[in-house]
Amino acid sequence: MTILSGLRITECAAFIAGPFATMSLAALGAEVIRIDPLEGGLDYHRWPVTDSGRSLYWAGLNKGKKSVSIDLRSPEGRELAQAIITAPGEDGGIFITNFPATGWLDYEKLKARRGDLIMANILGNRDGSTALDYTVNCAVGFPAVTGTPGELTPTNHVLPAWDLLCGMTAATGLLAAERHRRKHGAGQLLKIALSDIALAVVGDLGFIAEVQINGHERERHGNHIFGAFGHDFETRDDRRIMVAAVSLGQWKTLCKATGTGDSITKLEQSENLDFAREGDRFAARDKIAALLAPWFAARTVAQAAAALDSERACWGLYQSFAQLVKEDPRCSPANALFAPVHHPHIGTTLTARSPIDFAACKPTPPGTGPVLGQHTDEVLSEVLKLSGAQIGALHDKNVIGGAAR
Amino acid sequence: MTILSGLRITECAAFIAGPFATMSLAALGAEVIRIDPLEGGLDYHRWPVTDSGRSLYWAGLNKGKKSVSIDLRSPEGRELAQAIITAPGEDGGIFITNFPATGWLDYEKLKARRGDLIMANILGNRDGSTALDYTVNCAVGFPAVTGTPGELTPTNHVLPAWDLLCGMTAATGLLAAERHRRKHGAGQLLKIALSDIALAVVGDLGFIAEVQINGHERERHGNHIFGAFGHDFETRDDRRIMVAAVSLGQWKTLCKATGTGDSITKLEQSENLDFAREGDRFAARDKIAALLAPWFAARTVAQAAAALDSERACWGLYQSFAQLVKEDPRCSPANALFAPVHHPHIGTTLTARSPIDFAACKPTPPGTGPVLGQHTDEVLSEVLKLSGAQIGALHDKNVIGGAAR
User: Fold this and answer.
1) N or C: which end of chain A has fewer CB within 10 A?
2) Which residues of B are catalytic?
3) B360 touching chain A per CB within 8 A
4) How far apart are CA A137 and CA A159, in angstroms?
5) Neighbouring C-beta atoms of residue A249, cutoff 10 Å
6) Are strands A338-343 and A347-352 parallel, antiparallel or unpaired?
7) DSSP output for A99-127
8) How near does any CA of chain B get to the CA of A6, in Å?
9) Which of B124, B97, B135 is nearest to B194 (CA)?
């Protein structure tokens, strides 16, 4: 038994937040049915793509789901989609969308078909206006403090962090709502705005209070870790290492591993600082980095790694995506997280299962991305109990699609 | 009734992932008890801090929790902590830690006290070795592609995205495990490695497949949105705007709002591209940006905003943290997400409740960060049913602490 065995979730969504929410729940064993238009949804061709135009992004974010393709412009198709969303069963009736919840996706209309429906609607802004990760991120301050001090232009992040966090927040919300329904019988509508996810985090991490209480805002600190010591260093073999000394223990191990204790103590005395205090390490960050830099410059990564590991110092190697895939054992089948998975249109790639291990439940193996429409017949048969003849008639009328070529 | 009314979770954790997990569940109405050493945990002084040294970070990430301080070096203190973690009640017995689960935090020892305990252990790496957001992020490729093309050094992100995502993943995992226990009676140990969170996402978004299938890796594209069109533009009043045209609809509204349709069509023809295809927009990104730049340069933010909004184009304004706090109505009590909340050691700041709205449940108001040890007596009385005399004796022996000054 997997941890979410039996739970059934339907999705009409695109891009990251919604699909990532349900992909994460599918990786815990939930049955996730993604419904798309016959030609595929808005994200069906989203880059990166293979040479033949298959979306690696779509495959990745829909892993382990069942794909149903329906002509969602036709009344008959919409009726089918609503029927799947609201199909009976105590573990069903859970739906997520990041489209406007109007028309056939209106919560009240769906609720009329299943009174205890749980529906999560992911919005851009709370008022329903559009926002994407990129247009939220620029507004919440981080691009202004990312990159080298002195730069005059903002630096966008590449990781769609807000989308991912929004998706996982929606997953948490759906499970909370399912718990409530199990205890009290009632379903409900959840609303989650992408911009609220970012705004809440800006507050959680103290950035709002810095402005309101301290009267100033965070500055750009390049690759320094704010409020402690952490920086990147070049090695003799032209690689870069990030070291982190946030806790006192990490600071002590770093000094010991690099044998810089004496010169660090001299610096501490000359600056009249106490490096046991994280803020004092931050105040002297450039001078500390200057003391450490020669140690790294004199060593290869392998030599630095051996010394740092011998003291259990906290460090990481900068890697490109290719270096990560080709050289890091954590990104290989040696890590139980991963297994090679074959996709008929794409080939075989290293694929992750859920990063959560549940000791008492069987892990769900890494899923493959579905072929668009691959599970249309299966879902109509199993969930809606349609006959082969009924399904055939829907195909004949082009209301539903089979597995895309 | 709030969505997680009644659920009780105990936390022995520090920094972001663990505290953020439980802060998010407290914001949904769970009772969260954070246990710290008498002098505060590793993150008790984490920056940003007020002028008087109070951590805004600690206050933010522990909002809405109860704080219990105990001498965790003493056997008697450890006994108390274990008793709280494993206290009876069908909604209790849920525990999260990001410390090594050994000694008095060993799962088997805790399980011996409560057989159906659910315990989540957040690790750095799966093998138990140390890793922080900074030392994971450098390894998974993003710093190498963040920043301006041509830069030779990596750019770290400032947002601790992996920590946050790890925390919310742990919240999802705890609710999944609680569902399983409710249905089947069994608790269990969950393990979640920070580096696995990042590695899984690198795969989900297609970066691993780009290397393995396409044989090349993502390059640095500055502030361009990969595989579609999106870029930042300077306005006449020296501000910057991010526009995003990922979907075809967004692309059409952008062209219409900026009146650049004709010149865009000419570019399309001269380049022999079809901008209805997102990849073709990406291929011509620099030339498209060059066509759009004069439109923005000729307009103030207000003028550009009016035109973009009239077509419902997707855009966002770059803001510093101070601009966000002082100028954006989304970051004010006008947004139902926020309310001013007072903290006795810090003052009053705009504070977020959960970004999830549950239509059928009462929202939990934004919580305030506790004072260290503020709830020690309350928790020992209510959860462990200790008498006033017993609690007094523990204070006398300095086994427990009261509210810090």
Assistant:
1) C
2) 163
3) yes
4) 11
5) 14
6) antiparallel
7) S-S-GGG-HHHHHHH-TT-EEEEEESSTT
8) 11
9) B124
| A163 given a catalytic annotation | yes
Span B134-140, average pLDDT: 98
Distance from A187 to chain B by nearest Cα, in Å? Answer: 8
Task: Report whether A146 contacts B232 (CB < 8 A).
Answer: no
Reply yes or no on whether the pLDDT at B405 is more than 90: no
CA–CA gap between residue B68 and residue B217 (Å, rounded): 48
For residues B246-263, give the mean pLDDT. 97
- Contact flag B155-A223 (C-beta cutoff 8 Å): yes
User: B37 - beta bridge partners?
Assistant: B70
A157 touches chain B (CB under 8 A): yes
CA dihedral (A49, A54, A56, A58) positive or negative: positive
pLDDT digits (tens, 9 = 90+) for B307-355: 999 999 999 999 999 999 999 999 999 999 999 999 999 999 999 999 9
Cβ partners under 8 Å of residue B371, min gap 6? B67, B344, B345, B403, B404
* Interchain contact, B144 vs A196, CB within 8 Å: no
| DSSP letter (8 states) at residue B280 | H
Q: Let me know: does B137 contact B158? Beta carbons within 8 Å.
A: no
Which pTM was predicted?
Answer: 0.98
pLDDT digits (tens, 9 = 90+) for A217-262: 999 999 999 999 999 999 999 999 999 999 999 999 999 999 999 9
Q: Which of A123, A145, A168 would you mutate first to test chain B, the one with the most B CBs within 10 A?
A: A168
Is residue A210 a contact partner of residue B321, using CB atoms and an 8 Å limit? yes
List pLDDT tens digits, range B19-57.
999 999 999 999 999 999 999 999 999 999 999 999 999
Are the beta carbons of A168 and B169 separated by less than 8 Å?
A: yes
Rounded-to-integer distance, Cα B204 and Cα B68, Å: 39
